[in-house]
Amino acid sequence: MSEKVELVWVFVVDYAKGWGVRKHSHDYFQMYYCLAGESPVFLEDQDIRLAPNDCLLIHPNQIHEVKPLPNGYLRILDTKFYVHDEELYRSLIKMPAHINIASPTFSWLQKETRNEWASGAPYCYEMATLIFEQLLYLYLREMNCSPAEVPFYHEMEQKIASLTGIEKEIANYILENFLVEISLDQLAQDLRYSKNYLCKVFKEATGYTIIEYRNMLRIRKAYDM
After folding, report:
1. What is the pLDDT of residues 59-69, one digit of tens each?
2. Tally of CB atoms within 10 A around 104
3. Alpha-carbon gap, residue 95 to 136, rounded angstroms
4. CA separation for the pair 212, 26 (Å, rounded)
5. Is residue 214 classed as helix, strand or coil in its secondary structure?
6. What are the residues whose beta carbons fall under 8 Å from the beta carbon of 124, sequence distance 6 or more?
7. How far apart are CA 177 and CA 139, in angstroms?
8. Which of the 8 DSSP states describes residue 46?
9. Residue whose C-alpha is closest to residue 32's, from 16, 6, 12
Protein backbone atom coordinates (compact mmCIF):
# COMPACT_ATOMS: atom_id res chain seq x y z
CA MET A 1 0.00 0.00 0.00
CA SER A 2 1.37 3.40 -1.01
CA GLU A 3 2.01 5.87 1.78
CA LYS A 4 2.76 8.73 -0.59
CA VAL A 5 -0.83 9.62 -1.42
CA GLU A 6 -4.00 9.63 0.67
CA LEU A 7 -7.27 9.91 -1.22
CA VAL A 8 -10.06 11.90 0.44
CA TRP A 9 -12.71 12.06 -2.30
CA VAL A 10 -13.09 10.86 -5.89
CA PHE A 11 -16.38 11.75 -7.55
CA VAL A 12 -17.86 12.72 -10.89
CA VAL A 13 -19.67 16.03 -10.38
CA ASP A 14 -22.24 17.54 -12.75
CA TYR A 15 -22.99 21.27 -12.78
CA ALA A 16 -26.05 22.71 -14.53
CA LYS A 17 -26.75 26.29 -15.57
CA GLY A 18 -26.47 28.64 -12.59
CA TRP A 19 -24.62 26.10 -10.43
CA GLY A 20 -21.14 26.59 -8.99
CA VAL A 21 -19.03 26.43 -5.84
CA ARG A 22 -18.27 29.51 -3.73
CA LYS A 23 -14.72 30.66 -2.98
CA HIS A 24 -13.04 28.46 -0.40
CA SER A 25 -9.76 26.72 0.44
CA HIS A 26 -8.60 23.58 2.24
CA ASP A 27 -5.39 21.91 3.42
CA TYR A 28 -5.31 19.15 0.76
CA PHE A 29 -4.73 19.04 -2.99
CA GLN A 30 -7.68 18.97 -5.36
CA MET A 31 -7.68 18.00 -9.03
CA TYR A 32 -10.41 18.90 -11.49
CA TYR A 33 -10.40 16.91 -14.72
CA CYS A 34 -12.97 18.18 -17.22
CA LEU A 35 -14.92 15.40 -18.90
CA ALA A 36 -17.45 17.53 -20.77
CA GLY A 37 -18.74 21.08 -21.05
CA GLU A 38 -17.00 24.35 -20.19
CA SER A 39 -16.94 26.62 -17.15
CA PRO A 40 -15.14 29.67 -15.73
CA VAL A 41 -13.07 28.83 -12.67
CA PHE A 42 -11.26 31.19 -10.28
CA LEU A 43 -7.93 30.11 -8.78
CA GLU A 44 -6.03 32.50 -6.52
CA ASP A 45 -5.67 35.62 -8.67
CA GLN A 46 -6.60 34.31 -12.12
CA ASP A 47 -9.68 33.34 -14.07
CA ILE A 48 -9.41 30.05 -15.94
CA ARG A 49 -11.80 28.46 -18.39
CA LEU A 50 -12.10 24.69 -18.04
CA ALA A 51 -12.74 22.72 -21.23
CA PRO A 52 -12.68 19.00 -22.07
CA ASN A 53 -9.38 17.26 -21.20
CA ASP A 54 -8.32 20.25 -19.07
CA CYS A 55 -6.70 19.37 -15.77
CA LEU A 56 -6.61 21.90 -12.93
CA LEU A 57 -4.42 21.13 -9.93
CA ILE A 58 -5.38 23.15 -6.86
CA HIS A 59 -2.67 23.38 -4.21
CA PRO A 60 -3.36 23.27 -0.47
CA ASN A 61 -4.75 26.53 0.90
CA GLN A 62 -5.31 28.09 -2.53
CA ILE A 63 -8.56 30.03 -2.80
CA HIS A 64 -10.67 28.71 -5.66
CA GLU A 65 -14.20 28.85 -7.02
CA VAL A 66 -16.28 27.23 -9.73
CA LYS A 67 -18.22 30.21 -10.97
CA PRO A 68 -21.95 29.79 -11.67
CA LEU A 69 -22.37 28.44 -15.18
CA PRO A 70 -23.84 31.09 -17.49
CA ASN A 71 -25.28 28.32 -19.69
CA GLY A 72 -24.79 24.70 -20.69
CA TYR A 73 -23.35 22.19 -18.24
CA LEU A 74 -20.07 20.97 -16.80
CA ARG A 75 -18.96 17.46 -15.85
CA ILE A 76 -15.71 17.09 -13.93
CA LEU A 77 -13.90 14.30 -12.19
CA ASP A 78 -13.12 15.81 -8.78
CA THR A 79 -10.34 14.25 -6.71
CA LYS A 80 -9.21 15.49 -3.29
CA PHE A 81 -6.03 14.09 -1.80
CA TYR A 82 -3.11 14.57 0.58
CA VAL A 83 0.51 14.02 -0.45
CA HIS A 84 2.78 12.69 2.31
CA ASP A 85 5.94 12.23 0.24
CA GLU A 86 8.12 15.38 0.33
CA GLU A 87 9.68 14.94 -3.10
CA LEU A 88 6.32 14.36 -4.79
CA TYR A 89 4.80 17.26 -2.86
CA ARG A 90 7.56 19.67 -3.96
CA SER A 91 7.28 18.50 -7.56
CA LEU A 92 3.53 19.10 -7.66
CA ILE A 93 3.82 22.53 -6.04
CA LYS A 94 6.31 23.66 -8.71
CA MET A 95 4.04 22.77 -11.61
CA PRO A 96 1.68 25.24 -13.34
CA ALA A 97 -1.87 24.52 -12.25
CA HIS A 98 -3.69 24.40 -15.58
CA ILE A 99 -2.89 22.09 -18.49
CA ASN A 100 -4.76 20.37 -21.30
CA ILE A 101 -3.84 16.69 -21.37
CA ALA A 102 -5.22 14.82 -24.37
CA SER A 103 -3.41 11.58 -23.43
CA PRO A 104 -5.79 8.58 -23.56
CA THR A 105 -3.76 6.98 -20.77
CA PHE A 106 -4.27 9.99 -18.50
CA SER A 107 -8.01 9.98 -19.17
CA TRP A 108 -8.20 6.24 -18.53
CA LEU A 109 -6.34 6.54 -15.22
CA GLN A 110 -8.70 9.30 -14.11
CA LYS A 111 -11.75 7.15 -14.80
CA GLU A 112 -10.21 3.98 -13.33
CA THR A 113 -9.40 5.82 -10.11
CA ARG A 114 -13.07 6.79 -9.85
CA ASN A 115 -14.28 3.30 -10.82
CA GLU A 116 -12.16 1.62 -8.14
CA TRP A 117 -13.11 4.20 -5.51
CA ALA A 118 -16.82 3.64 -6.14
CA SER A 119 -16.71 -0.12 -6.73
CA GLY A 120 -16.97 -1.31 -3.13
CA ALA A 121 -14.77 -4.27 -4.11
CA PRO A 122 -12.15 -5.66 -1.71
CA TYR A 123 -9.11 -3.35 -1.56
CA CYS A 124 -10.90 -0.73 -3.70
CA TYR A 125 -9.34 2.14 -1.73
CA GLU A 126 -5.85 0.69 -2.06
CA MET A 127 -6.32 0.07 -5.78
CA ALA A 128 -7.72 3.57 -6.36
CA THR A 129 -4.79 5.10 -4.49
CA LEU A 130 -2.18 3.21 -6.51
CA ILE A 131 -3.87 4.10 -9.80
CA PHE A 132 -4.07 7.76 -8.82
CA GLU A 133 -0.43 7.84 -7.77
CA GLN A 134 0.50 6.60 -11.25
CA LEU A 135 -1.71 9.35 -12.67
CA LEU A 136 0.18 12.00 -10.69
CA TYR A 137 3.51 10.88 -12.10
CA LEU A 138 2.05 10.92 -15.60
CA TYR A 139 0.82 14.46 -14.89
CA LEU A 140 4.34 15.50 -13.89
CA ARG A 141 5.76 13.90 -17.02
CA GLU A 142 3.28 15.76 -19.24
CA MET A 143 4.06 19.05 -17.52
CA ASN A 144 7.81 18.58 -17.83
CA CYS A 145 7.78 17.46 -21.45
CA SER A 146 9.48 19.81 -23.90
CA PRO A 147 11.00 19.41 -27.37
CA ALA A 148 14.49 19.37 -25.87
CA GLU A 149 13.56 16.27 -23.88
CA VAL A 150 12.26 14.27 -26.85
CA PRO A 151 14.62 11.28 -27.44
CA PHE A 152 17.16 11.98 -30.16
CA TYR A 153 15.86 9.11 -32.30
CA HIS A 154 12.23 10.28 -32.32
CA GLU A 155 12.50 11.97 -35.75
CA MET A 156 14.14 8.87 -37.23
CA GLU A 157 11.35 6.61 -35.95
CA GLN A 158 8.69 8.90 -37.43
CA LYS A 159 10.33 8.74 -40.85
CA ILE A 160 10.71 4.96 -40.72
CA ALA A 161 7.08 4.49 -39.65
CA SER A 162 5.88 6.27 -42.80
CA LEU A 163 7.83 4.07 -45.25
CA THR A 164 6.22 1.76 -47.79
CA GLY A 165 7.39 -0.62 -50.50
CA ILE A 166 11.02 -1.61 -50.83
CA GLU A 167 12.11 1.16 -48.44
CA LYS A 168 9.95 -0.48 -45.73
CA GLU A 169 11.46 -3.88 -46.54
CA ILE A 170 14.96 -2.46 -46.07
CA ALA A 171 14.05 -0.86 -42.75
CA ASN A 172 12.46 -4.09 -41.47
CA TYR A 173 15.48 -6.12 -42.55
CA ILE A 174 17.88 -3.78 -40.75
CA LEU A 175 15.67 -3.71 -37.65
CA GLU A 176 15.74 -7.51 -37.47
CA ASN A 177 19.50 -7.75 -37.99
CA PHE A 178 21.10 -4.56 -36.67
CA LEU A 179 22.86 -6.31 -33.79
CA VAL A 180 24.84 -8.58 -36.12
CA GLU A 181 27.27 -7.72 -38.91
CA ILE A 182 25.25 -7.83 -42.12
CA SER A 183 26.98 -6.43 -45.21
CA LEU A 184 25.28 -4.46 -47.95
CA ASP A 185 26.08 -7.35 -50.27
CA GLN A 186 24.18 -9.72 -47.98
CA LEU A 187 21.27 -7.28 -47.82
CA ALA A 188 21.15 -7.03 -51.61
CA GLN A 189 21.26 -10.82 -51.97
CA ASP A 190 18.45 -11.40 -49.46
CA LEU A 191 16.16 -8.68 -50.86
CA ARG A 192 17.06 -9.48 -54.48
CA TYR A 193 17.89 -5.94 -55.54
CA SER A 194 21.20 -4.35 -56.44
CA LYS A 195 23.20 -2.85 -53.61
CA ASN A 196 23.38 0.56 -55.27
CA TYR A 197 19.62 0.65 -55.84
CA LEU A 198 18.83 -0.23 -52.22
CA CYS A 199 21.21 2.43 -50.91
CA LYS A 200 19.78 5.06 -53.27
CA VAL A 201 16.06 4.55 -52.52
CA PHE A 202 16.58 4.31 -48.75
CA LYS A 203 18.66 7.49 -48.63
CA GLU A 204 16.10 9.37 -50.71
CA ALA A 205 13.18 8.20 -48.53
CA THR A 206 14.72 8.75 -45.09
CA GLY A 207 17.70 11.06 -45.37
CA TYR A 208 19.85 8.32 -43.80
CA THR A 209 22.18 5.83 -45.41
CA ILE A 210 21.53 2.19 -44.57
CA ILE A 211 24.66 2.09 -42.44
CA GLU A 212 23.65 5.27 -40.61
CA TYR A 213 20.25 3.76 -39.85
CA ARG A 214 21.84 0.57 -38.55
CA ASN A 215 24.19 2.57 -36.34
CA MET A 216 21.32 4.71 -35.04
CA LEU A 217 19.45 1.57 -34.03
CA ARG A 218 22.50 0.38 -32.12
CA ILE A 219 22.86 3.74 -30.37
CA ARG A 220 19.14 3.73 -29.50
CA LYS A 221 19.51 0.25 -28.01
CA ALA A 222 22.41 1.40 -25.84
CA TYR A 223 20.52 4.59 -24.90
CA ASP A 224 17.45 2.63 -23.79
CA MET A 225 19.55 0.24 -21.76
Report:
1. 999 999 999 98
2. 8
3. 11
4. 57
5. helix
6. 116, 117, 118
7. 37
8. E
9. 12
